[in-house]
Structures are given as structure tokens and as C-alpha cells.
Design brief:
single chain, 3 helices, mainly alpha
């Protein structure tokens, strides 16, 4: 495969991932599941999707755009290892993001209870 064809294939794969798959996955699974696991009502989950989707997509693009540029050009035998390495970094980021959000909610609830 020549360089131009490889570039086009990588660009297409990255575009589909960022603009088709990621918004669907975050809006229908990741954000609502996080809300459900934290005991929120469905209406609160919908509000979470509205408020967290864009920041999550931006963070995803910051991590996965360069990651996918590397992953899609790694030899096939090493591709799964490369993807898993970046996925580990992404999972750590998401867990920190969710923990910070939960701590902020708990602090505001505690402040309201004290008042």
C-alpha cells in the first residue's frame, strides 16, 4: 500500500471514530451508565449527557486523535498492545474526571445540608 492510500485510510478511520462512534457511545452508554451507577434518576442522566457530552468529546479528541494516528500505523502484530496502552491512559483520565465530578457534587450537597 502506498503512503497516500495509507494516509486516506487512517484519516477515514479517525474521522469515523471521532465523529460517528464516539458521540453515540458517550451519549447512549458511557455517560448514562455512569449516572446510573451513581444512583441518579433517568432525568438526571439526561441532564448529565447534555452537560458532559461536549467536554468528554473534546477530551476524547485530545487523547484519541494522536493515539489513533499512532495505532493505525503500528504494525498489525503490535496494534492491540498499542491500543490497550492508550486505552489504559484514557480509563485513568475518565476515572479522575468522574471522581472530581463526584467530589464536587458531594461537597455542594454537604454545604447545602449544613446551611
Amino acid at each position: 500500500m502506498d503512503v497516500e492510500a495509507g494516509f486516506k485510510k487512517t484519516a477515514l478511520s479517525m474521522t469515523l471514530d471521532q465523529f460517528l462512534w464516539s458521540p453515540i457511545f458517550f451519549a447512549t452508554y458511557l455517560i448514562p451508565m455512569n449516572a446510573a451507577l451513581n444512583g441518579k434518576a433517568p432525568s438526571e442522566a439526561l441532564q448529565d449527557v447534555k452537560s458532559e457530552l461536549i467536554p468528554t468529546l473534546i477530551a476524547s479528541a485530545k487523547v484519541w486523535t494522536p493515539a489513533n494516528a499512532i495505532i493505525y500505523n503500528v504494525p498489525l502484530t503490535w496494534r492491540v498492545l498499542a491500543a490497550n496502552g492508550f486505552d489504559l491512559v484514557w480509563a485513568i483520565y475518565l476515572s479522575i474526571f468522574v471522581t472530581d465530578d463526584d467530589q464536587a457534587n458531594q461537597e455542594s450537597s454537604t454545604a447545602e445540608a449544613i446551611e
